[in-house]
């Protein structure tokens, strides 16, 4: 017998938590699930060294305490059929039924290939922030943060807070773009405060624009990197390279369900109307999955989605807030576009599919993504093409394709033993 | 959130801070994670369960993402380094 | 490029690729026509098992003949040929009782097989569920990676002068084929288009027989042979949907799990209900698989002929048109034998085995 929730929310980051609060306050029986062991998503990820504060603390406490909210930890949606979701946790699997579904699946980091990117010691920028919060040893380690986007600042601040010595931040966007980005921030005073706070926490850390990490070197682990900036190339010794090129909406569940997707540059985002309704009846989406817009946008959209899913129309104030915070997303996209240099970073023998060890040159000469996949097995590994697929789309090589179940590697007993009815 | 946990990594006993991930414990213990199909050393990349580079064997079960699993008292971890 | 060829092979799945390779090896001027990825159709949903199947004497002859020819192809680049052997699993005494006759039929075709009692069964494959009766081991058989096999065969053909054209054939005429853009090519035509035969040759019926596949993460050493239940071939001609136990160890260490058959659906959308039934059947033989992780699930449409045997040969009533299609679940397995028979027929030579069971003329128009 499938367990039934009035409102089932996939993803417990700021958007999912906001949706849970709104739906529960409206009296709905809420299921909130996330693949992580703790709620918070990435932005409000549980930190082993620091307690949550402010809005994060309140929202996290709410879902733990509210009797109408079932918090389903370490739970991953593997498949969907007949208006139900197949969910697996470390011990069991079951089908969950719902009246309304809220997709708050967030985003993953855009990790682009370059020579040496597979060395231990090279992580994403958000990646090292996530690792830091889960206890990764950073005390006394030399860390270079690189790539693109405001996430680099947040990541650098976290890394520093956890004891890492941030040697510098290298942003690929040019100084003109950066200046214009900062100049345009006045429309979002919250962001200005956020930026100022980050700058303060990063006092003494050099920040370079027009700067790209072109290679990482080492034997079995990272030893040094090569950075190319306006004044040429130089080498830096470091223990960790935290490099990420922005965020990519996580849309696979939406795609599997048949929700309409819009283009988001080289990637996709879930189409929603201004009440966060997707193209499917009873399915809503909120936050980064609808386009990279940041935390404030996720909170506003999650609240709208939660209200709407529980049958309550969102207030005009909420809608205004959503409109305002969404506009930030456009501002962001305009000023952190990927420089052509970044697309040329991978060499012919640079691996692009890490799961199956497929190099860039192995993909040459194939007519399309599917032909390349069949011939090389690129994209057929454990990450199911999330890393290489996003990279190849960003590099202009192949567009990302459709999706089949399972959405993540799933235990065979989940697929074989779980009764549908 | 205080307290320590004892776990066995590649046959050796380590004491680590409670609440950290298995990935953090492996890094603290200086242990490798895994090898790619062609034998290259690999370690966590994304930190959030998407890249699958951090897979190790936990309590006898293979193919588990170390960044997604908090440490537990008495846990055994076997890397593929 | 000249518009005239000795042979126009339409379709570069495993069967078309094998035929093109054989024809080019015999010095024929070959044009291969394929709009999509090589080996991208049902070939990409094939298990790639090289097995001698004795559901009928005709099937057995073709699979055994092909086995010998596959042995000559084991050095094709990218083939990933793994000579893991086949272990037919007898669930009970009835199954086990069939082994001696099957072993004898294989021996008559020069294929070595050994009966396996329960004790040896578990020594060979400790992961098998308790209570099985034994089985039959065929050590010379193995598995290949079908898309790579098709590509390698096409490459070899092109190395001997064949040309590959990325086009779709929309019609046959008296002298050859016509493409979507209206241009034509002259020559004898071989239709190796699998399930798409109906649009070009409606008189030879083929029905799509959907099958599912699941591939796991890497778990090397879980099983050593490709495992098949003794009764695998029993349901092949049934109308009803069925599942059967068939699991392979891939050279990567992944496990490839089959198999299912149904006529109800003619799309390749994954049916979780069918996958569940297939896995339930699998767990009955390999219970430990429950805790392993599945990476991908996909489905393909086996082209099934009226009587379960492929159509190989000249198409009566059509000048210069030949066919090699309708191999159901044995396309990869019997591709080399099909190619050898077809090319022998083209050149007016008697094939090495009796090809009359596969004669398209057996189907009354």
What can you see in these coordinates?
The complex is a heterotrimer of chains A (421), B (81) and C (365). Helix content of chain A is 32%, strand content 25%. Chain A is built from 13 helices and 22 strands. In chain A, strands 1, 2, 3, 4, 5, 6 and 19 form a seven-stranded mixed β-sheet that branches. Chain A has a five-stranded parallel β-sheet with strand order 8-15-9-10-11, covered by helices on one side. In chain A, strands 12-13-14 form a three-stranded antiparallel β-sheet, with no helix packed on it. In chain A, α4 (151-161) links the parallel β9 (142-147) and β10. In chain A, α1 packs parallel to α8 (295-309) and α8 (295-309) packs antiparallel against α9. The longest helix of chain A is centred in the C-terminal third of the chain and has 20 residues, at 316-335. Chain A starts with a strand and ends with a helix. Chain B is mainly beta. Chain B has a single domain, classed as Roll (Ubiquitin-like (UB roll)), CATH 3.10.20. Chain B is built from one helix and seven strands, in the order ββαβββββ. Chain B has one helix spanning 22-28; strands at residues 4-9, 12-17, 34-35, 41-42, 55-58, 61-65, 76-78. In chain B, β3 and β4 form a beta hairpin. The longest helix of chain B is centred in the N-terminal third of the chain and has 7 residues, at 22-28. The radius of gyration of chain B is 12 Å and the shape is globular. The mean pLDDT of chain B is 96. Chain C is an alpha/beta fold. Helices cover 27% and strands 28% of the residues of chain C. Chain C has helices at 14-25, 57-71, 93-97, 99-108, 118-124, 146-159, 197-200, 272-285, 331-346, and strands at 4-10, 30-33, 49-50, 86-90, 114-117, 134-138, 142-143, 163-165, 169-173, 176-179, 184-191, 207-218, 226-229, 242-249, 254-261, 293-304, 311-314, 321-325. In chain C, the strands form three sheets. In chain C, strands 1, 2, 8, 9, 10, 11, 17 and 18 form an eight-stranded mixed β-sheet that branches. In chain C, strands 5-6-4-13-14-15-12-16 form an eight-stranded mixed β-sheet, with helices on both faces. A two-stranded antiparallel ribbon of chain C has the order 3-7. In chain C, β17 and β18 (321-325) form a beta hairpin. The longest helix of chain C is centred in the last third of the chain and has 16 residues, at 331-346. The radius of gyration of chain C is 20 Å and the shape is globular. In chain C, 54% of the residues are buried. The A-C interface holds A 79, 81, 86, 366-368, 370-371, 374-375, 380-382, 384, 404-406, 409-413, 415-418, 420 and C 36-40, 44, 147-148, 151, 166, 214, 216-217, 270, 272-273, 275-276, 279-280, 282-283, 289-298. β22 (410-411) of chain A pairs antiparallel with β16 of chain C.
